[in-house]
Write a structure and sequence with these properties.
15 helices; alpha/beta; 11 strands; globular; binds manganese (II) ion; binds 6-deoxy-beta-L-fructofuranose; 3-stranded parallel β-sheet
Amino acid sequence: MANGFPIDGQLIERLNEGALGALEDDYASLGRQLARRGIDVETIRSRVAAFSVAVPSWGTGRGGTRFARFPLAGEPTGILEKLEDCAVVQQLCRITPRVSPHFPWDKVSDYAGLREVAASLGLGFDAVNSNTFQDQPGQKHSYATGSLTSTDPAVREQAVAHNIECIDIGRALGVRDLTVWIGDGTNFPGQQDLGRSFDRYLDSAAQIYAALPDGWRMLIEHKMFEPAFYSTVIADWGSSILAAQHLGPKARCLVDLGHHAPNVNIEQIVARLHRFGKLGGFHFNDSSYGDDDLDSGSVNPHRLFLVFNELLEAERNPRDGFDPAYMIDQSHNVTDPIESLLSSAEAIATAFAKALLVDRDMLKTAQEENDVMAAFQALRTAYRTDVSPILAMARVGAGGAADPIATYRASGWRTAMAARRRPAGSTAGIV
Ligand code: LRH
Ligand code: MN
């Protein structure tokens, strides 16, 4: 297979041939429509072709809740099979060339070897994720009462050491970001002192920060609640930016879209973090209630568009080091994870492409002149544009599939993997 990609390239070519006529017709018609708006469709296509978002290794398996996890026959059971499935996603959509791994879930003995395997599949790695929200078999100290903020110095030391181990792994994998999400918090008022627990966080995080190599970033991920249900140490962007400013320039804030109360204006949080040079990255997903980890754009694609609208404004007014890491973080409880990742990558690239269509000079003029409806219509005109022909042309131009999900189904990949892979366990929980 070309470039070690798992699916037969001739199948993709054959199916693309059948779709090309209609696609070129739709693309030409969209090109004429955009030209009337002073927009060159080819410029948008090349921006879309250069766009990419990382996939989470843990998103290739079925996710679950505390109630149950329903395994899928043929789902991956280890990092090598996870990389194969990530390669299928990249082969078909061509905008997910990197995998964000999670440790110790993706632990192996030879990380240089893992990097080679990924490269042979046309993949690289993105931010490494530490895990001090679960106890591992044989672990000396439990994280039941916290990790980086535990009152027990031995527990904090263990959690700091794990994060430093993740940095070492990341160096072997050729990445430069460490994502630190901790579930530390309380379930009862009075259970912990809210001030001292934050101070313990700052002290532990400073030790991790000190271990960051040059050029590395520590991405602090806030989350309103879960697994703690009364208070969470890093509960919101305020706690996150205060910690990042306290730690130093390598510390940035990561925005997981699902980690906010319903209806929070996340795009304004993006604008604030960018204003102070602390916008480090994203975990894209969708949600209605809690950290539902649903497919990006599946519930509220307009919010995703508004986030990318802010990101393009930020790009026009770059602060030092505007280079947010784009990653997906989802839990695929009822779909084939590959189909969800294909659908989500499409939704994220769609939001980006629509945001590229906003007439920003017209928007700024309307804003300055308080022409409210003109300002809103500047966004709405872009949002209601069907950009799917641009995404498909960019995909096919890069060797991907005109219709990724239909091509994936035609490949019979999952059935083949069900015959080849051992059944995955059905323990409840995320992985
Ligand atoms: C926490 C989170 C975090 C990951 C985990 C898998 O809810 O978003 O980013 O470590 O999910
Ligand atoms: Mn996340």
